[in-house]
Amino acid sequence: MGEFRGLLIPSLCFLFGAAAVLSELACKDSHSGPTYESLQSVFDKKPFRPATNLSNPTVTNISFTLYAVLGVNEKSQILTTFLWLRLYWYHEFLQWDPEKCGGITKISLPVEELWMPDIIVYEFIDEDKSQRCPYIYVNHTGQIRYDRMLRVLSSCNLEIFNFPFDVQKCSLTFGSYMHTIRDVRVSLALPIEQISENSKKYLETSGEWELVKIQGETDILKFGIDEWDIITFWVTIKRRPVLYVVNLIIPSSFLMLVDIMSFYLPPHSVDRASFKMTLILGYTVFLLIMNDLLPSTANGTPLIGIYFSVCLALMVISLLETVIITYVLHHSAMKYRPVPRLVRVMVLGYLARLICYTRPPSQPETPSNNITTDPQEKMKNVEVSQASPELQQICRDLGMVRAHIDSLRLQQDLEEEWIHVGYVLDYLLFRVYLVLITLYALVITCMWCIWYNL
């Protein structure tokens, strides 16, 4: 091993020393451009970094254009983009004088014949299957330009709480895979503002996603004692929510509007319960259909999914309230049972004042036990007791009729009181519906304004 190292180091020194002497490529008068022999000598040095002094790092300038956002997979936390990547670096062995080479200042050479910096995207999580450009451009000063199309599947922390008005910020980190900061340095080929403007120009006709801005910064990545030079680009994109507003929010708003209007049906009607059951069934079918449009992650649930669940819960609560009221009003045992004191105080007292419920005025009650309180009535009773048996029988029959009428009136009063309890609960739930839907409309409007102003 020592003998091999002793032979390798002098050979490398001789090789790069010769390259330093032959800093310019040879040209012939009959040829335009460098000769094949001089280029072949450069091709033979492909395994080595093109620097006459290996202590000087090779600077690689990077720029790209975000051409398309192909997809965002919220469940797998993957962002798929399509980039036009452009790299610049200097090849110190590829230099010639244009005046001696027929005025040629730029030539194209095969990629596989020259050394290239191993620049990768650190967030890349899949095999690179994008098409490679087989040629590179070489300037007479030794500057190399390499263009390629890059389909990037990168990991990104996607936030879906504000869906479909969400804004995603993902990073694309470019740097060398093997060469440390002593061998390869990276820098920007274009200003960040120009990269962002070029990307916006090509993304104007894209589908679901819209580019907001691109930010970038250089940094040094450390692993142990080694350091790598990197550039991190922050790509901010926002979703166009028109598709989801039309397919999710508007149909749900229509169904909720129908459910709100159902509160105007009388609570003691059996048709109201069947109508609400049909409406819940329709809303459940709607949730099953829109389940494919909602993103799903293990980190959280979008706000619109919470809203759909709350709407379904309110519809179920309104159905249960209708069932309870129907049971109370149609059950024979409830008709003769007075309203409990706690229910009367809480529902007909506090809740009625809270929702500003006004009870309609009732008819003056006719007392059923004041027959013998009036002196004139006493005299009539005495006279009736002294009358004939037929008249006494008629009086007893009239008393029974009056008692029956009083019992019917008492039953009607109890039924009306239970109906008022149902009306108070109906009005309360109706106002809760209106408050929640109004709050949600304000939240959607604010989110839309924030999305629009980005």
From TrEMBL:
Pfam families reported in the protein's UniProt record: Neur_chan_LBD, Neur_chan_memb
Signal sequence interval, chain numbering: 1-23
Domain Neurotransmitter-gated ion-channel transmembrane residues, every copy: 248-369
Superkingdom as given in the UniProt entry: Eukaryota
InterPro entries on file: 5HT3_rcpt (IPR008132), 5HT3_rcpt_A (IPR008133), LGIC_TM_5-HT3 (IPR049944), Neur_chan_lig-bd (IPR006202), Neur_chan_lig-bd_sf (IPR036734), Neur_channel (IPR006201), Neuro-gated_channel_TM_sf (IPR036719), Neuro_actylchol_rec (IPR038050)
GO molecular function, one term: extracellular ligand-gated monoatomic ion channel activity
Transmembrane segments: 242-265, 277-294, 306-330, 428-451
Gene Ontology cellular-component annotations: postsynaptic membrane
Its membrane topology: Multi-pass membrane protein
Catalytic reaction list: Na(+)(in) = Na(+)(out); Ca(2+)(in) = Ca(2+)(out); K(+)(in) = K(+)(out)
Keyword line: Cell membrane, Disulfide bond, Glycoprotein, Ion channel, Ion transport, Ligand-gated ion channel, Membrane, Postsynaptic cell membrane, Receptor, Signal, Synapse, Transmembrane, Transmembrane helix, Transport
Domain Neurotransmitter-gated ion-channel ligand-binding, chain residue ranges per copy: 38-241
UniProt subcellular location: Postsynaptic cell membrane
Family named by the database record: Belongs to the ligand-gated ion channel (TC 1.A.9) family.
Classification via PANTHER family: NEUROTRANSMITTER GATED ION CHANNEL (PTHR18945)
Role of this protein: Forms serotonin (5-hydroxytryptamine/5-HT3)-activated cation-selective channel complexes, which when activated cause fast, depolarizing responses in neurons.
Record protein name field: 5-hydroxytryptamine receptor 3E
Organism from which the protein derives: Acipenser ruthenus
Lineage, opening ranks: Eukaryota, Metazoa, Chordata, Craniata, Vertebrata
